[in-house]
Amino acid sequence: MPLEAGLLEILACPACHAPLNDRTTAETPELVCTSEECGLAYPVRDDIPVLLVDEARRPA
Ligand SMILES: [Zn+2]
After folding, report:
1. What is the pLDDT along the chain (60 residues), one digit of tens a residue?
2. Beta-carbon count within 10 A of 48 CB
């Protein structure tokens, strides 16, 4: 089941509460924080976004 567009609208970064962008690549689906200072990328596992700062990939 793909992520529903309506779901994205209610998703916010748990670190800074900015909206999240769906930035799914071929290999790893991710939800990426739109804040330039934050920019954490959250994994999506089994179509479920894991909105945990501890699980997020930090920007380079
Ligand atoms: Zn953020």
Report:
1. 566 666 656 789 999 999 999 887 777 889 999 999 999 999 999 888 899 999 999 977
2. 10
